[in-house]
Amino acid sequence: MSESAVLQAGVKPPAWIVDRFVVLTALAGLGVLGGLIWLETAPFMVALFAIGTVLGMALYHGAFGFTAGWRNLVLKKRGAGMRAQLMLFALSSLIMVPMLYSGQAGLVGAVAPVGTSLVVGSFMFGIGMQLGGGCGSGTLFTVGAGNIRMVVTLVFFIAGAVLGSIHLPWWLDQPGFDPVPLVNTFGVSGAIIVQLLGLGLIARWVNRVELKAHGTLERNELLWKGQEHGVLRTLISGRWPFTWAILILAAGNALTLGIGGSPWSVTFAFNVWGAKALEAVGVNMSQFEFWQWDYPAMALKDSLLTNIPSVMNFGLLLGAMLAAGLANRFNEASRNRPQRRPLLAAVVGGLLLGYGARLGFGCNIGALFSGISSASLHAWIWFACAFAGSLIGIRLRPWFRLPD
Amino acid sequence: MDKAYSRGRILIMLGVILALILVDHLNSPTFAFNSGQGNVQTALTQRDESACAPCGAPCPSTRN
Fold first, then answer.
1. I need a labelling partner for A99 at 20 to 30 A (CA). Which of A59, A150, A399, B12 fits?
2. Averaged over A251-262, what is the pLDDT?
3. How far is A77 from chain B (nearest CA, A)?
4. Number of structural domains, chain A?
């Protein structure tokens, strides 16, 4: 019921409670870090930091979790989350593929090699998603919202990512071939049409699964329907219909490409954070081939404030914290002390996520979302393999006493 | 309703993260460059467009 309907019925609307401490702390964090980035780097990095913040808020308020969307389809035969993801990929494909191939200098798509590394990595990532409780962005926004179990997942995500970076050169030497941009085969319009057809076929399958199980499709989560509060209050304190999150996430990725020169990615930052931590305790990361390649070597040597994925991740964490404070739900998921087996799942899942993300050239954001937005074949293979891995992860969840 | 968190712990956690970012930055080429030291290569405008993946991995075809 909307606020106006509540007032008409003569019932007092529920009080709007904001967690002032969390909101003020998040705003202070955004101000301090944003100011530091402004002073020490360049204005475009501040813009990317702000985009990361908005993306964090959108992920939290939209409850836009890739992991739960896949699990709901498999276990509950509900497809709203999966359909929202497919719509996001379709929209961003329509926006970003023409941008990337418009001939504008300095824009690089999220393309990656296709081979053993990609297949193994994305499959492992899929298992890790269900055990760890989130993907790359999901882990970050839940950590920002104060979920303690997800902090454990993040720590082992970072550890797995560093291990994966050490092993990646070996995996690259296994059978595989160079990136396959669909635009090279089909042209810009053709690649977009092929991708829309692919997404449409998946959506049709999702709908069939849901209709067969329930007889109807769940649409309320997608549209502005049956919201408890008015538009402004919902915008500030959630929960958003999926459509809002889709629009913000698609615009955020396109802006990231336009401003930063490459699409949104999350997990490369985890590699850098882990490698810097190891260097701080005396490990020479430059002995490993991965850290001798130009981009990782430069990222390792220079400030985190110059590394786009790191800066956006900082914004995402604080944005999710701000959103959780505005919704008065900060740390709500961690009221009960985590049990042993769910914590073990966070450890195992985190390691699989990190290792898998490095071998698979990213997570649901960098490899899947940005990959499809760049019309790269590797993203589709990543999608299939991660979903297959996710099926195994879902089967393993009961042993770890994780809820459906 | 009771808070599900400790304010002190949150401030300490965020303070530690900020301190780590600062220490990392103060030891970086970018900070050296901003402090007036020349001849340092910073990552700010560096992007490896020749790489085969967003993480900077080379193409399989270029590997021996």
1. A59
2. 96
3. 33
4. 1
How far apart (Å, rounded) are the C-alpha atoms in residues A85 and A13? 33
Q: Which residue has the tokens 């002032």?
A: A20
Q: How close, in Å, is residue B52 to chain A by CA atoms?
A: 6
Domain assignment present for residue A1? The answer is no
User: Which chain B residue shows the shortest CA-CA distance from A334?
Assistant: B4
Pairing type for strands A176-177 and A114-115 reads antiparallel
Cα dihedral A157, A162, A166, A171, rounded to 10, equals 30
Of A164-178, A211-225, A239-253, the least confident: A211-225
pLDDT in tens, B2-56: 677 889 999 999 999 999 999 999 999 999 999 988 777 777 765 666 788 989 8
**CB-based contact (8 Å) between A304 and chain B?**
yes
CB contact under 8 A, A334 and B55: no
Search chain A and give the residue with CA nearest B18.
A33
> Which residue has 């504008």 as its token pair?
A104
Cα A188 to Cα A177, A256, A385: the distances in Å are 22, 20, 26
Shortest Cα–Cα distance, B22 to chain A (Å): 9
Q: Do B58 and A370 touch (CB under 8 A)?
A: no
Q: Which helix (H) or strand (E) holds A170?
A: helix A148-172
Domain encompassing residue A140 = 16-396
Tell me the three state secondary structure of residue A96: helix
Question: Which range in A3-7, A19-23, A225-229 is most confidently predicted, on average pLDDT?
Answer: A19-23
Give the DSSP H/E element, type plus range, for residue A115: strand A114-115
Residue of A nearest to B26 (CA): A303
Written as one letter, the residue type at A242 is F
Average model confidence (pLDDT) for chain A? 93
Q: Do A262 and B47 touch (CB under 8 A)?
A: yes
pLDDT attached to residue A334: 75
B10/A304 touch (CB, cutoff 8 Å), yes or no: no
- Extents of the domains making up chain B: 1-34
Chain B residues inside the 8 Å CB shell of A298: 41, 43, 46
pLDDT-wise least confident of A11-15, A59-63, A334-338, B56-60: A11-15
| Contacts across the A-B interface (CB distance below 8 Å) | 140
DSSP state at residue A14: P
Q: What is the ipTM of this complex?
A: 0.92
